[in-house]
Amino acid sequence: MKHVRKYGVAGAAGVSVVAVVSLIAVGTVPAAADEAFARGVSFAANPRDGVRDNVLAANLRERSVAWGQLPLQNPDAALGNTHYGYNTSNGGPLTQDPKEAFKTEPDKNVYLILNGHHYLFQGHEGGPAGYVTRVDLDQTNPALRVSLVADRDQNGAKVPTFDGITWDPFSHQLLLTAEASAPTGGVFAVGLDADGNATTPLTRLTALGSGGYEGVQNDSAGNVWLVEDIGGAAAGTGNNGKVPNSYVYRFRPVDRTDLSKGGTLQALQVLRPDGTPVTAAQLQADGRDPILTTLHTYGSSLRTRWATVTDPTNATAGAKAAGATPFKRPENGVFRPGTGFREFYFTETGDTNANSDLPGAFGAVFRLRQSGPGAASGTLSPVTIGNVAHTGFDNIAFATADQLLVVEDAGDTLHRQRNALDSGYVIDLRNAQKSRNPIRWLAEGRDASATYDALFSPGYNDGDNEITGIHVSDGDASVGGILGAKLPKPFTAGWRVFWTQQHGDNVTWEVLGDPAQYHGNEYNAH
Predict the structure, then answer these.
(1) In the chain, how many domains are there?
(2) Domain housing 414
(3) What pLDDT is attached to residue 526?
(4) E-assigned strands of 357-455?
(5) What is the dihedral of CA 114, 342, 394, 271, to 10 degrees?
(6) What gap in Å lies between CA 497 and CA 279, rounded to an integer?
């Protein structure tokens, strides 16, 4: 018997499926959930040439749950939001054509079980109009699997594209982030009923401010943590690097069940050893302030505090005015399970250019420790420091209390420079030495559509595939199910793992472990 993974391919209706035998040999001894990712891929990242398959750690498999060509059950033809991965408002064919449709890039994932239904929700970060979709994981007919949740605001107008997403159990709504400079960027919400259907249009939450937010995460107190991704001005030799320009935020609501009632937006401020704040004015002078080297040195630990953003209408400018500390594109963050929401880990992408000679050029994974989620102060330390082979850190999720999954979005320029596509890594937090040596659990490939776009892009679609949407959850929609509240158990007790191979065919995958623990609708080839 051979275990197979499933790929969506364009057919007459765009929903046909072909089974492709896994690259991993049959007979691998299944790993326990707490070591499934740590076994790693024993060879290098995929090179950037031609079409390449994904390669996973030897004890892992994957199957597609949705792909770009799947039609929406309830399309919005007027806006062109008609498929899982395509906006067809330009009238072109879906893919691999000079006039191909806009690829909408399904991004972060949220897994929820609502009234016994197993759903995967995501926002879309590409194309001319943003929208939110729902994948029905119980639906066996691909043509009926994906629904449009929302794509218009209360006035019936289109909304910005979305990157981040999380489920807020206190207000019972999905929170989505639009990663764009003010006034476009910000946080939007859509309410869901018990069956996972929208109860409201997409509504901008003005109290949370406007900025280039990407990561969004609740804590147990009902605060909303936001991680911003806005690139800074060019700097360094040959202008190959960029100065820090993005902030980490915490929104403290007046009423956690109704975020529209307002609250306080705060931005993280890092302190120098002498107690003075590390500010944007200092870091943006030339991008070479020595404190950046300190921030990206193993063993360093700097005190932090929260600064109030008095005018959140432009959160980026407001954080700068408040004396908060900018980072090099910190994209996403998550709380470590078992810490009572006292440890927050976030990624920093870096400059995504192998020729950058600035300190911190290749980013890092940082750990913020506080006495509690609402604490006024804490300490910041690097857990993993990037290098040219491990950089572009983006999405992040805990597989277990000690194993942190981090995936790359290095971009086509760096792919070309290092001749290596993106990878997914597991960082072992059990001791400092292990955390400094991430293990590759995924070597992402490049599908035919992404290869075409990398070579012949019409100019509005991205090229190489990107890893996004890494998500580990048991689908618990209650307050007790907030990410970080429970100890994850991948592939057991209802815990499931998803990621999206963004760009190209835009396939969303479910990662599978021990075949004996696969869900009933797993496919096998005999």
Answers:
(1) 1
(2) 2-525
(3) 22
(4) 364-370, 377-385, 393-398, 403-408, 423-428, 439-443
(5) 150
(6) 38
CA–CA separation, 348 vs 525, rounded Å? 41
Give the count of beta carbons closer than 10 Å to the beta carbon of residue 303.
Answer: 14
Question: Is residue 149 a contact partner of residue 132, using CB atoms and an 8 Å limit?
Answer: yes
Mark residue 68 as left, alpha or beta (left: phi above 0; alpha: psi -120 to 50; beta: remaining). alpha
Under a CB-based contact definition with an 8 Å cutoff, are residues 370 and 429 in contact? no
With H, G, I as helix, E, B as strand and everything else as coil, classify residue 175. strand
The helix (run of H) or strand (run of E) holding residue 456 is helix 448-456
How many C-beta atoms lie closer than 10 Å to residue 301's C-beta?
A: 13
| HSE value, Cβ hemisphere, 13 Å, CA-based, for 427 | 27
Q: Which residues contact 84 (CB under 8 A, 6 or more apart)?
A: 66, 67, 68, 69, 70, 71, 72, 106, 133, 135, 146, 506
pLDDT of residue 33: 56
Half-sphere exposure in the Cβ direction for 432 (13 Å, CA): 6
Q: In CATH, what number is assigned to the domain containing residue 30? A: 2.120.10.30
Look at residues 53, 62, 3, 32 and name the one whose alpha carbon lies nearest to residue 499. 62
pLDDT in tens, 471-526: 999 999 999 999 999 999 999 999 999 999 999 999 999 999 966 544 444 433 22
Say what the pLDDT of residue 58 is.
Answer: 87
> Phi, psi at residue 407, to the nearest 5°?
-120, 155
CA 523 – CA 132 distance, rounded (Å): 28
pLDDT at 40 over 80: no
Gap between the Cα atoms of 217 and 397, Å rounded:
11
Torsion, Cα 164 169 172 175, to 10 degrees, reads -10
Ranking 224-233, 326-335, 517-526 by mean pLDDT, the lowest is: 517-526
CB contact set of 504 (below 8 Å; sequence gap of 6+): 68, 95, 103, 446, 447, 448, 449, 450, 451, 453, 465
Residue 378 tokens, joined = 């804490």
Q: Which of 208, 224, 203 is nearest to 150 (CA)?
A: 203
- The stretches of 205-306 forming alpha helices (DSSP H) are 280-283, 290-295
Alpha helices in 274-420 (DSSP H): 280-283, 290-295, 315-321, 411-418
